[in-house]
Specification:
GO terms for molecular function: iron-sulfur cluster binding; metal ion binding. Pfam families: Fer4_7. The protein has helices spanning 29-33, 64-68, and strands spanning 8-11, 15-19, 39-45, 51-55, 74-78. It has 85 residues and is mainly beta. β3 and β4 (51-55) form a beta hairpin.
Amino acid sequence: MTPEFVPKTQKLEKGTFILFPALCKGCGLCIEKCPKKSIGWSEVLGVYGTPTVEANNSCIACGICQAVCPDCAIRIEKNGTAGRP
């Protein structure tokens, strides 16, 4: 696996927030749509050299960020659901 496709994984209280920096263009749509305002800008740069995003522990693992990401750069796994489709 090439380094740019290594996911950035954050284990949070309600689930796991997985970001693929090589796919994130830093559009901020996930930040805008997050109902808990738990997503913010990261220091990790994405595909165009723009900042990517990260979540904090107020994340409820609802998956809205995953659903609205136009580049499929985010994956959410709720605790206890890993491996389920």
